[in-house]
Design goal:
Blueprint: H1 6-14, H2 21-32, H3 34-51, H4 64-74, H5 90-117
Helix pairs in contact: 1-3, 2-3, 3-5
Protein name: Zinc-finger
Region (Disordered): 71-91
């Protein structure tokens, strides 16, 4: 049985675009497959939580050394990185939280999928 790709499950959970024929096929599979249904349910809960998050729900900003290491890892330049802006808008923080939450869910689902297929 071919399961729905984790990235497609994320898209279904987000519901950002009108449904396509591929979505309908994926949802038919989800109806029959406990594993994919559980993964979609979990992702939908994360999306709902991220979209309803408040400013007080967000963690404190990480120390400057964290941003420095991230920038260093992503950049080939030797110039010191600029720190991120100290004030992020509310919608930006919500989007950031949603992206982080979805990345965690996608990683978890992918890891579980790999473990089950081994």
């Amino acid at each position: 049985m071919v399961h729905v790709e984790p990235a497609h499950l994320v898209e279904l959970a987000l519901r950002n675009t009108p449904p396509t024929d591929d979505d309908a096929e994926a949802l038919r599979h989800v109806e029959r497959c406990d594993r994919c249904r559980d993964a979609l349910r979990m992702m939908t809960r994360v999306v709902t939580a991220a979209r309803t998050a408040e400013l007080v729900d967000l963690p404190t900003a990480p120390p400057e050394r964290v941003w420095h290491r991230i920038t260093q890892g992503m950049s080939r330049e030797s110039a010191p990185p600029r720190p991120p802006p100290r004030t992020l808008g509310r919608s930006t923080k919500r989007k950031l939280l949603a992206v982080v939450a979805l990345a965690v869910v996608a990683g978890t689902v992918a890891r579980r999928t790999l473990k089950r297929n081994v």
